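Researcher: Following up on the earlier apo prediction. This time include the ligand. It's zinc ion, with the SMILES given after the sequence.
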Amino acid sequence: MPAPIWRELFGQGDAIAQLELAVKHRDEGVHHAWLMTGPPGSGRSNMAVAFAAALLCAEGGCATCRSCTLAMAGNHPDIDVLTTEKVGISIEEIRNLVTSAQLGGSMGRFRIMIIEDADRMAERSSNVLLKALEEPPAGTVWILCAPSEADMLPTIRSRVRRIALKTPAVEEVAELLVERDGIERSLAIKVAAEAQSHIGMARRLATSADARGRRRDTLMAALEIDSVSSAIFTSERWLDLARRDADALTAERDAEERAELLRVMGVEDAAKLPPYARADVKALEDSQKRRATRSLRDGIDRILVDLLSLYRDVLMLQLDAQVPMVNEDLRTQLLGIANRSTPQQTLFKLAQIELARTRISANVKDQMVMDALAVNLRTKP
Ligand SMILES: [Zn+2]
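Model: Understood. Below is the ligand-bound prediction.
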């Protein structure tokens, strides 16, 4: 039985077994750098935090002691988490982290530095980190998170121990939603497919009719582009949907974080904030504000991922591949598109969506990218 700290990490038995082994033998020393790889939604960052908590807990991850509670609330003094609010990680952010790593642990034997989205480091920042990985102070453990090993420089790759997270099957995610969140089975299966096994996204679609509505509107808007002028209209519509989706998600997450902070600080009545809690709440609010830009970008990327699923479904229909569709409830509309176009045209559209994702992540102006994409997705040439 894995320690309680791992219980929220669903379907990652192999990764957990490897990490628990490291925790078990921590007295003989822990490897100083780890890389958690897996697609967004596979729980990379949660896995990193659970590993850090397990290393610092006397029981190896009891999930209830003070050390575990602080770690899970993101308040443990010996765990530094670098979360990117910007598109790229700056060299200053890495320098600060490297400096902080020198301090060693205050409560326990380890000091743990987590870099979420380590793939957002430019080469210059990577080189600063590399120096730190070459001469690690005793007790320092670095945990990097990235979609894949290929996202890291080879020099960094060679120094990290890699833990690969799996993407759970659609059925497994649906089962989790039924068991854990009490979602009705047919809805759970539908949203698990639509979220392409992204657990957080699946739960959100399952619990928010608004989120489901926005997803459907996004896809329907794509299917209705039949001219350049309607393409421009659709592009504006997508950006508006992305903004509303990002706002809703930010509001939910901000509220959860605030509630968690107040709980950890022992504030019972959120309306009457005691003076000792004010600075921490203010700091949280500031960091939430800084995160807002990044979340619009994530909202646009979600739209692009949904569009990829739409045209992949079309391609599967055109090739008559007997595989489950992501967007089963749009089958009639997708059959229409499949019959009116060729697989070559669909492949072109898929390539255009991938190109748009690359351009968004490279900081090209949102509107320009989405306008160009919409024009290329129109049904009539
Ligand atoms: Zn504990």
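Model: The pocket of zinc ion is lined by residues 57, 59, 62, 65, 67-68 (CB under 6 Å).
Researcher: Noted. I'll compare it with the apo version next.
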